[in-house]
């Protein structure tokens, strides 16, 4: 990718989007982790991996920051993948971050890790009895890691107005953090 930058000298906006694209190769699944400029759709760099995990994203982020310089990155975007979020927290803790709107809509109300602050504020507004922000965040991350397909939010006019977390112990189902914004 560096050769392409030298040959074409692309102008970078400072905005970087990260995503994983899965392929089947000889019966195995592999992922291409890609960093691109969301304004021009130019690929900045990419790495192959077996998992969409923090190690792969850390390798990709190292390549991107080596090419662009971390001080040139103004904002970052992703689909809310846990592997990326872990790498982002480690390397880009102060760079503005947003979950990709397309990926959020694609999940049709399914919670992604980047939603926590908005959900936590909605819980407070709804009068839910909560522990500290830190404890709630830890439990939120654990719930999503174990039950990513049973945690949902209600969205109205691009705002989270409700939540429901479902889980099971193998015999029984449980509902946690059922809340609706009072407005």
Explain this structure:
This protein is an alpha/beta fold and 183 residues long. It has two domains: 1-106, Nucleotidyltransferase, domain 5, CATH 3.30.420; 108-183, Aminopeptidase (3-Layer(aba) Sandwich), CATH 3.40.630.30. Helices cover 34% and strands 32% of the residues. The chain is built from six helices and eight strands, in the order αβββαβαβαααβββ. Strands 3-2-1-4-5 form a five-stranded mixed β-sheet. Strands 6-7-8 form a three-stranded antiparallel β-sheet. Helix 3 links the parallel strand 4 and strand 5. Helix 2 packs across helix 3 (82-91). The N and C termini lie far apart (50 Å).
What would the principal axes of the Cα set say about the shape? globular
Whole-number mean pLDDT: 85
Helix content: 25-40%
Q: How many H/I helical runs? A: 6
Structurally, how many domains make up the residues? 2
**Secondary-structure element string:** HEEEHEHEHHHEEE
Number of strands: 8
> Main beta sheet: strand number and arrangement?
5 strands, mixed
Strands of the widest sheet, in order across it, are 3-2-1-4-5
Give the SSE map.
Blueprint: H1 2-8, E1 15-25, E2 28-36, E3 43-49, H2 54-68, E4 75-78, H3 82-91, E5 97-99, H4 101-106, H5 116-126, H6 133-146, E6 151-156, E7 159-168, E8 173-180
Parallel strand pairs: 1-4, 4-5
Antiparallel strand pairs: 1-2, 2-3, 6-7, 7-8
Helix pairs in contact: 2-3
């Amino acid at each position: 990718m560096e050769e392409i930058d030298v040959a074409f000298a692309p102008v970078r906006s400072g905005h970087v989007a990260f995503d994983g694209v899965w392929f089947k190769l000889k019966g195995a699944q592999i992922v291409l982790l890609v960093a691109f400029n969301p304004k021009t759709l130019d690929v900045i760099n990419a790495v192959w991996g077996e998992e969409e995990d923090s190690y792969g994203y850390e390798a990709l982020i190292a390549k991107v920051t080596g090419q662009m310089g971390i001080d040139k990155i103004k904002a970052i975007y992703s689909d809310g993948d846990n592997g990326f979020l872990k790498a982002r927290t480690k390397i880009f803790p102060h760079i503005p971050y947003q979950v990709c709107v397309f990926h959020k809509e694609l999940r049709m109300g399914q919670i992604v890790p980047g939603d926590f602050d908005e959900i936590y504020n909605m819980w407070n507004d709804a009068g839910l009895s909560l522990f500290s922000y830190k404890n709630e965040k830890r439990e939120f991350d654990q719930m999503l890691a174990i039950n990513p397909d049973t945690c949902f939010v209600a969205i109205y006019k691009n705002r989270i107005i409700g939540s429901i977390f479902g889980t099971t112990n193998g015999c029984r189902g449980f509902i946690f953090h059922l809340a609706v914004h009072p407005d």
